[in-house]
Amino acid sequence: MIEASGQVALAGAALAVLVAGAVWALYAGLRMRAAARSVEADNARLWALIRSAPARAMVVRSDGRVELSSRLLDWLGLDTAPRDLSGLSAGGAGLVAEDAERLTAAIEATRRAAIPFRLPVRAGGSDRLLMAVGERAAAALTRDAGVIVWFFDATETQGEVQRLAERVELLRDAYQALKGLIEAAPMPMWYRTGDLRLALVNSAYVAAVEARDADDAVARQVELVEMGAPGAPPVQALAAKEAGAPRTTAMPATIGGQRRMLRVHDVPLADGGIAGFAIDIEELEQARSGIRRFGAAQRAMLDRISAGVAQFGPDRALVFCNQPFRRMFAMRGEWLADRPEFDRVLERMREGGRLPEVRDFPGWKAERRGWFTAADAQIEEGWHLAGGIHLRVVAQPLPDGGLLLIFEDRTEQVQLASARDTLLRVRTATIENLFEAIAVFGADGRVQHWNNKFRTVFGLDEAMLGEHPRVDALARDIAPRLANPSRGALMAELVRSATADRLQRGGRVAFADGRHFEFGAVPLPDGNALLTMLDISDSRKIEQALRDRAEALEAADKVKTAFVANMSYELRTPLTSIKGFAEMLEGGYAGALTETGQAYTGAILESVERLGALVDDVLDLTLADQPPVRALLAIGDAAESAAAAVAPLAGEKGIDLATEVQGSAGKVQAEGRRIRQAIEHVLRHAIAHTPAGGRVLLHVDGDKDRARIVVSDNGPGMSAEAQAHAFDRFARAAGAGERALGLGLPIARQLVEAHGGTVALLSEPGQGTLVTIELPRR
């Protein structure tokens, strides 16, 4: 029983164990089944991932066997999978032979030294390019030192790479060209890094800062324009970087020892740097300054011209007007200072009555407003205002859209034109009725105008003159009417001389019928020539009569001169006898004379002396016209000799005769006897008109061109009438005293003028008289 129960218990325990083991087995089976399903799912997922991957793998085992997918076989162009690496290139399929060799060598190096590789290979018979990437495979994959090679289809990538390479090449060329352009640029250019330090500069920059080369300028950070504290970043570059926009600044700089104005441009770049360049605007600034000065000078000039000028800007507002414009249109300065618009200016002109009267003023104003955009370079019209005022208006559209107006007051010109027309009509009527014959010849020698007298003098036909014949044809027609037919050609030559050579010439011509005409060819300002002919037949007769009379008078004058000369010589003989007998009577040769006899004898001697002097004067007067015999003469000696000759006369009257001879008197080419006579006659005249106790001064000096003799006295002087006749022959001047004929000064003048000299007299009543003789050195 006990054994049976033990057996039962044992059997139960065994059954329990069996049940427990079955349960465990069932649990383990279910678990393994779940794990297998998970592995299958992972395997399927991995295979799906491998199939969708852009790369295909090839496993190379250590013994040389290869494993590769069917898709890789398609890439390589193989029908069957190769067993080893040698099968990768067979019969034109697979890889290109040299690529297969390079791949085999790379796989062997990876297998032995674990050196990964990237190798482009090409499939034979196609354009496919593969990128083989190899590395040692994990032991779990090959269980030995195998290699896994991934093949990527790089055909499209290689095309893109090729395109990129070509673009890189283009960009490199462009960069080199841009670099060369920047280097050759005449303006300084530079590049700053993000910290605003110079990194690159061109040759122009190097030359501007006087550095050795670009590296030197960058190393020393030499700035083209110093701004701010030394070493601080340029203000304009910093402002451009902070604003993220280009900045332009005009600033001065010293380049090549000269102060220049630069326009500096700083441009921020995408990499954080700043590119810059500087343009020399010194000449531009000078040009602008010159334009401003020119504008100011032009406006100052426009203020001084007589025409009114007004300038309107592109906005049609008044920019400038000169003073004549303000006066012409009665514009106030304060109103013009507001820069009124064009329409307002026209309205103000109309209010002041300075515009023409028009029916449609708005339409008229709109037409003038169109001047701003007119295609014509210049517009001109005339304004006729009230009161007979005529204005010439010139409108000039300006390139900037503005308008320049010029108002010229032509009222006076219109009036002058009207007066000119009247004068032309008067001139035509005057010329037509002149006693002179007149004809106008053009520069081509054709007759242009003529009066009726010209036609009738030569007997020319009106129809022939209407054809405006040349002067040669006229000369041939008028030649038969002249006493000397060749004179017609001379007249034609004179007309040509007046038109071509602009010379004025004239002459006389005699007609066959006895008439005489004086003609002249005068050049006119317009290039034409005026031929005038005056009938001098009557004056020619009178001239001949006067010529005959002059010849007769000349012959009579010669006879008279010869008679006077002969009479002067003849008078000397009786005068000498009278003087001799009177002196004998006075000396007592005929007996003693009474006191009355002595007085009579003295009067006779005195009268003989006076008559002898008068005869000498008449003789000198007749001989003064003869040419002098010149020799070198010391003018001081001649003056002293003349003074010595008249000294007794001065002593008789108690007159102080003083002589002053300066060293500058020098010598002259003259006949000594005549010069002494001239000085002596002037001295005698002074002594004769100076009262007793007076003073006469003879002064002699000179310069390099002439010698001068001055005779002055303190006598009563001469009236204006006496001075007017002082040098007239045989004229009695008022107050001339005993020298009634007054031949002294005329003889002196005639003697001096024969030597090319001059005699001048200066006198005032009560102030004395001064006579000046000047003789040329040559």
> What global shape is seen?
elongated
CATH class term of the largest domain? Alpha Beta
Largest sheet: 5 strands, antiparallel
Number of domains: 7
Give the CATH superfamily of the largest domain.
Answer: Histidine kinase-like ATPase, C-terminal domain
Task: Calculate the mean pLDDT score and round it.
Answer: 80
Separation of termini?
203 Å
Structural class: alpha+beta
Low-confidence stretches: 733-741
Helical proportion?
A: 40-55%
Number of strands: 29
Tell me what portion of residues adopts beta-strand conformation: 15-25%
Enzyme class: transferase
Domain Histidine kinase: 566-778
Pfam families: HATPase_c, HisKA, PAS_7
Protein name: histidine kinase
Description of the structure:
It contains 24 helices and 29 strands. By secondary structure, it is of the alpha+beta class. The strands form 7 sheets. Strands 2-1-7-6-5 form a 5-stranded antiparallel β-sheet, with helices on both faces. The protein has a 5-stranded antiparallel β-sheet with strand order 9-8-12-11-10, with helices on both faces. Strand 16 and strand 17 form a beta hairpin. It is elongated. Pfam families: HATPase_c, HisKA, PAS_7. Keywords: Coiled coil, Kinase, Phosphoprotein, Transferase, Two-component regulatory system.
